[in-house]
């Protein structure tokens, strides 16, 4: 029996579809979480709007940029103000 034919069964299509939907839901949840975090942060309104536009245009890439650039800077500022690492 040809293994290629085994990969063409409807069951495999369903598994791939469900896996893709789960992955897409996880990506959307991450994006939405970063958007909510940005809107609830103590940033200025101009900075919030900038990040909302970045996340709206670049979607997941914008959310990762927010995570690695803006949120990391926020964590460093919180540590410095708390006196951690002195």
Describe this structure in words.
There is one protein chain. This protein has one domain. It has 4 helices and no strands. Helix 3 packs antiparallel against helix 4. The longest helix has 31 residues.
Question: Which labels suit this protein?
Answer:
86 residues; mainly alpha; 4 helices
Can you lay out the helices and strands and say which pair or pack?
Elements lengths: L2 H4 L3 H31 L4 H14 L1 H23 L4
Précis, in short:
The chain has helices at residues 3-6, 10-40, 45-58, 60-82. It has one domain.
Distance between the termini: 68 Å
**Number of E strands:** 0
Radius of gyration (CA) equals: 20 Å
The low-confidence runs, each spanning 5 or more residues with pLDDT under 50, are none
Number of domains: 1
N-to-C order of helices and strands? HHHH
Number of helices: 4
The helix fraction, in percent, is: over 70%
Main pleated-sheet profile: none
Roughly what fraction of the amino acids lie in strands?
under 5%
User: What characteristic shape results from the CA principal axes?
Assistant: elongated
Mean pLDDT over the residues: 84
Q: Helices and strands: which structural class?
A: mainly alpha
């Amino acid at each position: 029996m040809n293994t290629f034919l085994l990969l063409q069964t409807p069951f495999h299509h369903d598994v791939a579809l469900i896996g893709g939907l789960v992955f897409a839901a996880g990506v959307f949840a991450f994006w939405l979480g970063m958007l909510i975090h940005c809107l609830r942060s103590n940033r200025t309104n101009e900075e919030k709007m900038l990040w909302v536009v970045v996340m709206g245009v670049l979607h997941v890439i914008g959310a990762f940029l927010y995570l690695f650039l803006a949120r990391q800077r926020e964590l460093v500022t919180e540590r410095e103000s708390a006196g951690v690492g002195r």
